[in-house]
Design a protein that fits this description.
Blueprint lengths: L8 E4 L4 E4 L3 E2 L9 H17 L4 E6 L8 E4 L2 E4 L22 H15 L5 E12 L5 H11 L4 E6 L5 E6 L2 E6 L2 E4 L2 E6 L4 H12 L2 H18 L3 E5 L5 E5 L2 E5 L2 E5 L5 H8 L7 E2 L1 H11 L10 E6 L4 E5 L3 E5 L2 E11 L4 H22 L2 E3 L6
Antiparallel strand pairs: 1-2, 1-8, 2-6, 3-5, 4-5, 4-18, 7-17, 7-21, 7-22, 8-9, 9-20, 10-11, 10-19, 11-16, 12-15, 13-16, 14-15, 18-19, 20-21
Helix pairs in contact: 2-8, 3-8
Bound molecules: the ligand C=C(O[C@H]1C=CC=C(C(=O)O)[C@@H]1O)C(=O)O.
The site of the ligand C=C(O[C@H]1C=CC=C(C(=O)O)[C@@H]1O)C(=O)O has 17 residues, from β7, β12 and β21.
Length: 377
């Protein structure tokens, strides 16, 4: 029985993997951009030859794929039982409400100017909120809380190079490769869920008929299809998106499936499409520049990818969303929203607040929190 540790890598997808210890780490200079996919595969094959045992790589690819990914080959890999989350237990403290963020609304206004000027069609702008606990946050308990709150999401616990741990439950699968089969589940278009069942149904219906959300979603799916096209022999994309439940939110989602050309790996697919328009925008290069210009800090691992790959190229990579980056007793939560012509800054601010609350709720399940500014952090 493995004792869970904050140094473990956990990814709760179809294989529910926990990686413990470190057999190797892909050198940072080999872990930048799409070449990292081949470098990771070569490392796995070399280690399997040396050790005579199957190996896989787990880790995080940052939002900016040009900065080094943290890809670790664990010493041991076990199958994670269903986490024993704090379901049914009252939260230890109420989650603090995310602070009002006038700078975010101003950034949305600036993005709308760029959209009106015609340089950009869609950009996803994010904001962050910092919270503090009285004692170091138990990241394993936090993973269990995330998994209990959103059991259908991809739970993850990924240690980062700077000693922090990114923990969350992502609703969005970017690439799942099994043999030649590839699947992706892009999400874009969001409505906050309501406590009252009738209001919740109305929010769902409004999302299903919202032209703005359908356009936002169509941009994402079209970009993904064009980025993945060189890697597949066949791609199936349903004509209309479906409603997806993700904790406090409804999303529009499309289940894409296809057949890969022989030799294409899960990391090849991940790097070919990342960052998708669910976290960046269209055109991608201009949207990424606008994100850098308008957001106050680098995103780091948030809105990057988390997952695993084995030496046959099978693997799963999900977007690092609905998560917290934990450093000792501090946690930073992020959330973004897709901006396009007609977006309302106040509505996008409210949407990011609802997304931030998913992570704040899970944090409040495991510790008492205060907004960082209250304790002068
Ligand atoms: C960028 C985030 O969500 C993305 C995923 C689903 C729906 C989204 C939207 O409707 O804007 C976002 O593109 C986030 O949660 O921080």
């Amino acid at each position: 029985m493995t004792t869970p540790s904050r140094d473990d890598h956990v990814f709760l997808g179809r294989r529910r993997l926990r990686g413990s210890g470190r057999r190797a780490v892909l050198a940072p200079d080999l872990a930048c951009g799409p070449a990292a996919a081949a470098a990771a595969l070569a490392l796995l094959r070399e280690l399997e030859q040396a050790d005579g045992a199957p190996r896989l790589v787990m880790g995080s690819i940052p939002f900016d794929p040009g900065t080094p990914a943290r890809l670790v080959v664990p010493e041991r890999v076990s199958r994670e039982p269903w986490p024993d989350g704090p379901t049914g237990r009252p939260a230890r403290g109420a989650a603090p409400a995310p602070a009002d963020d006038p700078a975010y609304r101003a950034a949305v206004e600036q993005a709308l100017d760029a959209i009106e000027a015609g340089t950009i069609r869609k950009v996803v702008l994010a904001r962050a909120f910092d919270v503090r606990a009285a004692a170091p946050i138990d990241t394993e308990a936090l993973l269990a809380a995330f998994a209990a709150r959103t059991p259908t999401a991809y739970g993850f616990h990924i240690p980062l190079a700077d000693g922090s741990v990114i923990v969350g439950a992502s609703p969005e699968l970017v690439a799942d490769v099994e043999g030649l089969a590839v699947r992706s589940h892009p999400l874009a278009g969001t409505a906050a869920r309501r406590a009252d069942p009738a209001e919740d149904r109305a929010a769902r219906e409004a999302l299903l008929t919202s032209g703005k959300d359908h356009e936002e979603h169509a941009i994402l799916v079209a970009g993904l299809a064009s980025d993945v096209a060189p890697l597949v022999t066949d791609l199936h994309i349903p004509a209309t998106p479906a409603i997806v439940e993700a904790g406090r939110l409804w999303h529009l989602g499309t289940r894409v499936s296809g057949r890969l050309r022989p030799g294409v790996t899960a990391l090849d697919v991940a790097y070919a499409v990342h960052p998708t328009a669910a976290v960046c925008g269209v055109p991608a290069h201009e949207a990424a520049s606008l994100v850098r210009a308008l957001e106050p800090e680098e995103r780091g691992a948030y809105a990057g990818l988390v997952g695993w790959m084995d030496s046959s190229g099978d693997g799963e990579w999900a977007l690092a969303l609905r998560c917290a980056t934990v450093t000792g007793a501090s946690a930073r939560v992020h959330a973004g929203a897709g901006i396009l012509a007609g977006s309302d800054p106040a509505a996008e601010h409210a949407e990011t607040a609802a997304k931030l609350r998913t992570a704040l709720d899970a944090l409040a399940d495991v510790t008492e929190l205060s907004p960082a500014w209250l304790v002068g952090a």
